[in-house]
Structures are given as C-alpha cells and as structure tokens.
Write a structure and sequence with these properties.
- It contains six helices and three strands, in the order ααβααββαα.
- With 141 residues, it is mainly α.
- It has one domain: Winged helix-like DNA-binding domain superfamily/Winged helix DNA-binding domain (Arc Repressor Mutant, subunit A).
- A three-stranded antiparallel sheet has the order 1-3-2.
- Helix 3 crosses helix 4.
C-alpha cells in the first residue's frame, strides 16, 4: 500500500508541477518572470501590503522582492504608498493597469484550460472537478 501511495504521490506531484509550469507560461507577457506574475497575483488579492509581507507570502527574501516590485513599478503595474497610520511605513498597491494585466492573464489561462477540458469526456471532466475540490481542501489545511 505504501508503495502505491508513494507512486501516486510522485505521479501527482510531477503532473501538477508540469500543469502549473504550463499555466504560468500560457499567455504570460514576454517580459514577465514567474516571480513578477506571482507577486502581481498576490497584490491583486491582498494589496496594499508591505514589501516584507509580500516577501513572506511569496517566500523570498526582502531584497529579492524589492527587485521584483521595482520591475512591476517600472511597468506601471504597482505603486508604493505611505501608510495612512504610519507615514514611515511603505505599502505596495496594485494599479488599475496592474489589475487589468492580471485579469487579462487569468482570462488567457482560463481559456487555455477550457480548450483542454473541451477535449475530455464528460466522465473525465467530472473526475477533474472532484479532484479540484480535493486539491482545494489540501491547500487550505
């Protein structure tokens, strides 16, 4: 049983990693690194937050996040703002252009997934629907 679970775990890990890589690449702007795309997605859902908080969420060191945010800022996708509670504290916020870029990227990835799903049988889509629920439970634990 353990060998079967280990084999399944390995198979799922590889398949999910490949799918995640392909999804990151689908419709991504040429100059967008995975780090920039991930940071923009986090800011889309959680902004405004500090650079330190953003670095912690993305699991990178603050100097790395400073470079990532600088790249996003150069493209007009994010901006730095002084905190209203403490003017010394800087928060990173997503701009309207950043929101639009993130939403456009989401739409392109969703369209790619929809095309892939259209090639499956109803039974296969039902299985994936159930699997998606299981994956959501895993990441929420």
């Amino acid at each position: 049983m353990k060998t079967t679970q280990t084999s399944l775990a390995s198979h799922l890990r590889v398949a999910v990693a490949r799918l995640a890589r392909q999804l990151r690449q689908e419709g991504a702007p040429e100059d967008a690194s995975p780090s920039r795309l991930a940071a923009l997605a986090t800011l889309y859902h959680r902004a405004p937050i500090t650079l330190g908080e953003l670095a912690a969420v993305e699991r990178v060191k603050p100097p790395t996040m400073t470079r990532v945010v600088a790249g996003l800022e150069e493209r007009g996708l994010v901006r730095r703002e002084h905190s209203s509670a403490d003017g010394r504290m800087i928060h990173v916020a997503i701009t309207d252009a950043g929101r639009a870029a993130h939403e456009d990227y989401q739409k392109r990835r969703d369209a790619w997934m929809a095309r892939k799903l259209a090639g499956l049988s109803k039974e296969e889509r039902d299985i994936l629907s159930r699997a998606a629920g299981i994956f959501e439970r895993w990441v929420e634990q």
